[in-house]
Specification:
With 216 residues, the protein is mostly helical. The protein has one domain. The chain contains eleven helices and no strands. The longest helix is centred in the C-terminal third of the chain and has 42 residues.
Length: 216
C-alpha cells in the first residue's frame, strides 16, 4: 500500500522540479522506475498541464545528475569500497550486489565509451553503467555527453508514450498501460542493444583481420 501511495503522490505532484528530482533518484543506485515519472508527465503535457519539451529536458537533467552521483562515488571510492557496499545489507536493499556491478563493468570494458550511451537504453544496466565509467576514470565531460544523449532518447520515448496514451486511456488506467508499454519497450531496447554490441564486435574483429593482412 505504501508503494502505491507513493506512486500516486508522484503522479499527483508532477512538475518540472519533481520530475528532475525523481529522475535523479532513478538514475542513482536507489531503485526507482522512470516509468512512474516520465510517461505520466508526458500524459499531463498532452492535457496542457506541462510542456512536453520541458518534461524531457527536466527528466534528462535529473538522469544526468543521478548518473553523476554514481560516477563520482565510483571514481573517488574505488572498486574495493564499491564492491563492499554492493555486498552490504544496504546495497542489497538498493537491489545491488557484486555480480551486478561486475556485469556492468564487463559490459563497459567490452564496448568502451559507446557503452555509456547504449547502456542508458538497456534494462538492468541503465542505472549501473555510471559505476564502471567512474571506476575506469572516464573523462567526465565525455561521460556526461553520452549520458545526456542516451537518457534524452529514453526520456523522449517514455514521454511520447505518455503523450499518446492521453488520447486513448483515462487517467485512472494510466499506470496500468504505462507498465504494459514500458515492459515491451525494455525488450525492444534490449534487442537493439544486443544488435549494436554484436555489430561493434564484428566491426572490431574485421578491423583486426584487415590490420593483420596489411602487416603480412
Amino acid at each position: 500500500m505504501e508503494s502505491i501511495s507513493f506512486i500516486e503522490w508522484c503522479i499527483e505532484n508532477l512538475n518540472y522540479w519533481t520530475i528532475a528530482f525523481l529522475m535523479t533518484i532513478e538514475s542513482s543506485f536507489i531503485p526507482f522506475p522512470s516509468e512512474v515519472v516520465v510517461p505520466p508527465a508526458g500524459y499531463f503535457a498532452a492535457a496542457g498541464k506541462l510542456n512536453f519539451l520541458l518534461v524531457v529536458l527536466s527528466a534528462t537533467i535529473g538522469a544526468m545528475a543521478g548518473a553523476a552521483i554514481n560516477y563520482g562515488l565510483a571514481y573517488w571510492l574505488g572498486r574495493p569500497i564499491v564492491y563492499k557496499f554492493a555486498n552490504s545489507r544496504i546495497g542489497h536493499m538498493c537491489l545491488l550486489d557484486q555480480e551486478k556491478v561486475e556485469k556492468a563493468e564487463s559490459y563497459f570494458r567490452e564496448n568502451g565509451i559507446i557503452s555509456t550511451l547504449i547502456g542508458r537504453l538497456v534494462p538492468a544496466v541503465r542505472q549501473l553503467i555510471s559505476i564502471p565509467a567512474g571506476l575506469a576514470k572516464m573523462k567526465f565531460h565525455v561521460f556526461l555527453f553520452y549520458t545526456a544523449i542516451g537518457a534524452g532518447v529514453w526520456n523522449l520515448i517514455l514521454a511520447a508514450i505518455g503523450y499518446y496514451l492521453h488520447s486513448v486511456v483515462p487517467e485512472e488506467k494510466l499506470m496500468e498501460k504505462v507498465n504494459e508499454y514500458s515492459h515491451v519497450l525494455s525488450l525492444i531496447f534490449l534487442g537493439v542493444g544486443i544488435f549494436v554490441v554484436a555489430y561493434l564486435v564484428y566491426k572490431g574483429m574485421k578491423k583486426k583481420d584487415t590490420n593483420k593482412e596489411a602487416s603480412l
